[in-house]
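Thread: quick sanity check before group meeting

JM: Hey all, I'm pulling together slides for Thursday and realized we never actually wrote out the predicted structure for the chain we discussed last week. Dropping the sequence here so it's in one place. If anyone has concerns about the input, flag it before I start.
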Amino acid sequence: MASKRGLRRRRCTGKKTYVSPAHAAFDAAAVSRRDGGNPVEAYRCGNCGGIHVGHRPTHGTVSLAPGEKRR
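JM (edit): ok, ran it. Output follows.
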């Protein structure tokens, strides 16, 4: 039986973790343009604390304010 911690960590497997919100926001804008304007954003992951880009999940995340530093 898998632990809850292991399950949470696997949610981030395969996702790119960004060092700065600025880099993540740049890539999010590029992905949004490429996907025909489908909104994609940078978000702080509640599981690993890193910054990811994608369709923001409904739980375990915190929106990033411009200029926010990584924890």
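AS: nice. Residues 4-63 form one domain. The helical segments are 4-10, 21-34.
JM: adding both to the slides.
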